[in-house]
Design brief:
single chain; 1 helix; 146 residues
Length: 146
Amino acid sequence: MKQLIKHTVAALLLTIVGAAGIAHAQSATVIKVNIPFEFNFGDKTFPAGDYSLVRPLTVYQHFLVLRDARGRTIASSFTNAVESSADSATSKVTFRSVDGQKVLSEVWQQYHNSGEQVTSANTNTRSYVAKPRLSEVGQTAEGSQP
């Protein structure tokens, strides 16, 4: 009987540890930001407000998801990797002015020297930066979050 209990407890612990590993592997980088102006992302225009930019760990290495304040996915785009010679001191979201409209163009995570450039962004224009809320910088969230 004691042998059966030991095996059951060991199997249960392995299941919990395995599930935790799977949950960690499915996590994503999330940067929450308040954008104080109307902006474009992909082929859509969004009003000023609170948003989350999510870089999910999926089959697509360079992909960015925009979520509204309620956590709902409202747009997504493929990205290209961009690099800097030094790590970014803070997380930041960069916008470009294209024909008078601000277009989300780059996302940089704090303490990383690489970022994501939205493929539709025009890089030969004026830049604007929206700084993430400090309490939310560099958070991770499960990929299945609504």
